[in-house]
Amino acid sequence: MVNRKELDPEGSPGERFGQRLRALRDERGWTQDELGERMGCSGTHISAVETGRRPPTPRFAASADRALGTGDQLERRGRAVWHTAILEGFPEFVAHEVRAAEIRLFELGIIPGLLQTPEYAAAITTGAVRRGAITEQQAEERLTLLARRQASLDRTPAPLVHVVLDESCIRRVVGGTRVMAAQLDRLAAFAELPSTILQVAPYDLGERRAFDLPVTLLTLTDRSHIAYAESAQQGRLERDMRFVQPLMTAYHQLQAEALSQATSAAMIEQARKGIL
């Protein structure tokens, strides 16, 4: 079949759910549209779930079980997805991120995942486990996905990555002084890459800082744009340019107000010296 995506059986719970859904559908000889018609949804929705771009809801899993005559097989399998630490909307975002031509990030408080060292990332997830926010299994899931996202930056051609960090990202010590010093070294090395631009938005930017929440903007290979933002419980992917374009404009304004890359690198080096 043309353009049929290969599924990873060792992937996320959502990908494993999608693989089983596809296998059950294939056993019956149904197309995605035919299964969608039996479930009361579109074939596009079925495709998104099968490829892990959209997580199955409890209602979706129950409806699929009824249509396929599988008892509660998919509903039980879906529990691993619903108990995941990955926010709804994030898997679909990652599917675009790993192929994006340009990535623009703004982050507050912590270093963004794509730039984290393994030790820094582990400290963040360990803290979440100790607070009871996630389980150790969920922490491992997060770290595995993060490693896959970071590895995608090594593709050819490499994406152009713009990063603006609020000053709080480099001042907040995570994992102790040695872990934080190594993380700041990682930022300095990142800033020297030919496909990256790293800037710091200093505290004294005050009300001129364009964003109060983290945001990621993707430019895809067809030059279309996607925005992604998170609340505490949900991630939201936005494609409508009526909403994405103002965010792009605000990001450019933030870059103009932030420190230059050279001045940002000097501030990061100063912060590194200050914690040792």
Task: Report on this structure.
- It is a single chain.
- The protein has 276 residues and is of the alpha/beta class.
- The chain has two domains: 13-82, 434 Repressor (Amino-terminal Domain), CATH 1.10.260; 90-112 and 155-275, Endonuclease Chain A (Endonuclease, Chain A).
- Helices cover 51% and strands 12% of the residues.
- It has twelve helices and six strands.
- The chain has helices spanning 13-28, 32-39, 43-50, 58-68, 73-82, 90-97, 118-130, 136-151, 167-171, 177-191, 241-257, 261-275; strands spanning 102-107, 160-166, 196-201, 215-219, 225-230, 235-238.
- A six-stranded mixed sheet has the order 3-2-1-4-5-6, with helices on both faces.
- Helix 4 (58-68) runs antiparallel to helix 5.
Secondary-structure map:
Elements: H1 13-28, H2 32-39, H3 43-50, H4 58-68, H5 73-82, H6 90-97, E1 102-107, H7 118-130, H8 136-151, E2 160-166, H9 167-171, H10 177-191, E3 196-201, E4 215-219, E5 225-230, E6 235-238, H11 241-257, H12 261-275
Parallel strand pairs: 1-2, 2-3
Antiparallel strand pairs: 1-4, 4-5, 5-6
